[in-house]
Design goal:
Elements: E1 9-18, E2 22-24, E3 28-37, E4 41-48, E5 63-71, E6 79-92, H1 96-106, H2 114-124, E7 135-143, E8 170-177, E9 186-189
Parallel strand pairs: 4-6
Antiparallel strand pairs: 1-3, 1-5, 2-3, 3-4, 5-6, 7-8, 8-9
Length: about 190
Amino acid sequence: MTKAGDFPLEREVVITVKAYPNPSQKYQETVCVAGVTKEEGWVRLYPISFRHLPKGLQFKKYQIIRLKMRKHEDTRPESFRPDQQSFRLDKILSTAEGWRERKNWLLPTVKASMCEILALQRETGVSLGMFKPKEICELVVEKADREWNAIINQLSLFENPGKPLELIPFRFKYKYVCDDPHCKGHEQSIIDW
């Protein structure tokens, strides 16, 4: 059981990214989630045992979650540890009127380019951001070179493990050019679930 002071920040977060679950020695299976708050802007919420949450708390992308969180030990400034027991699901933001509801949350966070985000990362450690690529050059699909370990198959005495996590046999990446005049191109993995 957590104490009230363990998670001092109460926030509304619009969920924008749920990474594919990964096995974890410490947490069994986790999902890294990114979203936007009005106060901090971009936040990374980790760890979240998404598939082990009660069905009524398994949030969707572009859904507002009310939660308690605290700064994570992770050195990246946007990393926070959520109190999963505090999750309260709110509305899913609509795509009506040209995505008006979603844009109200997200447009204030937009950067000019990936090159700008990388410069911020070097200066401040920031590792999340949003931008529009100038041109997507290629979608790369490769055979995955990783294997799940036995952690996923270990059973907890107190939890129903549910359906086993399936390894995606491929990796996906975008190659693109951003809107910085000096951009030499970028390659980024797609880990969204």
